[in-house]
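User: tokens in, sequence out, please.
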């Protein structure tokens, strides 16, 4: 059993930019490069193993052969999360995702609850998050046709280091000039409500899904998501903070200055995404192994891997279920 460094699948959605190639060394021949699916077994884009025994295989193939790598807390023996990097050079569509019950019944997939960690943001960058006032499907349809949907949407200015939890059913949109790490359920269902009348590379407007969207959308007034202070715990060699915890996943932001030790138990896999710096991860079992990593790289740690040590000066997100 070993740490697996992953190679992502890329997506060239029309709103994407160039930062993932230029600043994060993805070396993916797509322009624009909007998203990289860093840790994924989804059929629309699995990640690949870059090292060791399973080099060249998809993560989906590895986990199908070794379902114990997912862990005992995941009874379906499937990876329940999908981790992405997102470079929004332009606004994403205003959209919504269904919950598990609706998605499984109507789309034969999981629903999509997600969280965003803002890696970087332009000075005046903002997101769409829910509604300013309670609305109805009739109000929304009229607003979209009249081109004044904005007056109903809650716009939130974002800053580097912010975290946003986006439950299924929340209307939302990532604004231009934002670089995000997204952790979500393993799903690829998006219902577009509005897409700024943009034209795709084939000269057509992208499909909207208004009728499905209103079936799953929370039309009440959005919760207040002003920036809140988070508890950072300091230890010799690192600092740690839980930035999101929900029924689907837990995400921890860790700033390593010297060393950070932790355990990967048989109950769940863990994922490490390096946001900045460079370091080395060591396994501490009888056959000690080490793997170097740099900014932008992602590693899958199989359930039951045991004690691990990260050395270096790095900022990471650590995800587990």
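Assistant: Sequence out:
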């Amino acid at each position: 059993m070993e740490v697996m460094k992953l190679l992502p699948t890329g997506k060239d959605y029309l709103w994407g930019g160039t930062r993932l190639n230029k600043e994060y060394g993805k070396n993916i021949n797509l322009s624009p490069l909007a998203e990289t699916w860093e840790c994924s077994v989804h059929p629309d884009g699995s990640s690949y193993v870059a090292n060791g025994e399973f080099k060249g295989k998809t993560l989906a193939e590895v986990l199908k052969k070794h379902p114990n790598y997912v862990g005992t807390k995941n009874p379906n023996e499937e990876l329940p999360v999908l981790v992405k990097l997102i470079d929004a050079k332009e606004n994403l569509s205003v959209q919504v995702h269904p919950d598990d019950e609706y998605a499984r019944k109507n789309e034969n997939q999981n629903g999509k609850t997600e969280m965003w960690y803002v890696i970087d943001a332009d000075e005046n960058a903002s997101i769409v998050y829910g509604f300013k006032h309670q609305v109805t499907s009739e109000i929304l349809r009229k607003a979209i046709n009249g081109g004044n949907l904005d007056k109903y949407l809650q716009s939130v200015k974002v800053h580097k280091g912010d975290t946003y939890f986006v439950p299924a059913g929340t209307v939302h949109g990532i604004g231009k000039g934002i670089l995000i790490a997204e952790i979500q359920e393993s799903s690829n269902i998006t219902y577009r409500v509005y897409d700024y009348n943009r034209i795709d590379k084939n000269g057509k407007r992208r499909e909207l899904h208004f009728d499905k969207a209103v079936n799953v959308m929370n039309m009440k007034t959005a919760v207040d998501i002003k920036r809140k202070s988070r508890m950072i715990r300091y230890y010799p060699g690192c600092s740690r903070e839980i930035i999101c915890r929900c029924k689907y996943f837990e995400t921890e932001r860790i700033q390593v200055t010297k060393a950070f030790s932790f355990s990967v138990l048989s109950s769940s896999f863990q994922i490490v995404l390096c946001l900045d710096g460079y370091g080395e991860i060591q396994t501490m079992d009888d056959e000690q192994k080490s793997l170097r990593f740099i900014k932008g790289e992602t590693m899958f740690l199989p359930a039951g891997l045991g004690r691990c040590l990260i050395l270096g000066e790095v900022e990471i997100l650590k995800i587990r279920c």
